[in-house]
Write a structure and sequence with these properties.
Length: about 325
Amino acid sequence: MKALRVHELGEPKDVLRLDEVAVPEPGPGQVLVRVRAAGVNFPDALMCRGLYQEKPPLPFTPGVELCGEVAGLGDGVTGRTEGERVIGSPALPAGAFAEYALMDAGRVFPAPPSLTDEEASALFIGYQTGWFALHRRAGLRRGETVLVHAAAGGVGSAAVQLAKAAGARVIGVVGGAAKAGYARDLGADIVVDRHADDFVSVVKEATEGRGADVVYDPVGGDSFTRSTKCVAFEGRILVIGFASGTIPTPGLNHALIKNYSLVGLHWGLYNKRDPALVARCHEELTALAERGLVRPAVSETLALEALPDGVQRLADGGSVGRLVGVPA
């Protein structure tokens, strides 16, 4: 089979190489899937650079999210049937940027019937992250105002849709006019191009000085620092990630003075600590998809040989919406 593999660490466009390799064999508790579509995520770029918390042995195939068709079952696997359409995260080092991938049986979920393969491949990580952040960690309530940074990116776009589905008002922050249009199409009530306007002023004006009840921040750096200036009394700042490359060092006295909370989310831990809750989240996301309230907005579909460039553009902040790789 064809697979993109990393033989040495570096920039995605330089180190992702298309190889011909054997189809992997599912071990005990594993499922072999034929990949129909693979969502591209920021962790894929970090993995190529050796900067992700999970460091698979070289050579490895990235791709942490997929929609596929069950092609084989390892010993002890029950409840799955060959030919079944599924989504989830593959078991590295046999990731999704290939014609076949391996998945741990506990991380295999039915693909929502209302979504295409490409859409379904982008539902798992970003939308699970958004659901856990907004509902489990921030306790989002109907009518609240949510400020979403990187609103045109993978996790940001999911947060926009999920916040709207929960009855919140959404202010999205993006970088550039093209991304602004995309965020509006997702349903953001107000969109701020950070290259042209100050989101702090916009948030204060839109909330009559109150500020945002919830801040969804996958960026870090200056986005986090400036968000502390427009978070509401008893607001919650969700620390999702650090796409800017800068991890902020907040002054905790400021959180004390303004009575806001800093709330961290490492979604991957729930897969180990509470897999039943991950499964319930998938059921809720499937129901939202069936009602048309969430739908991953796939902007580009790329063949395997074009994925290195796509992963690089995502890493450099040059992509809009969800990029998806299609092996065939």
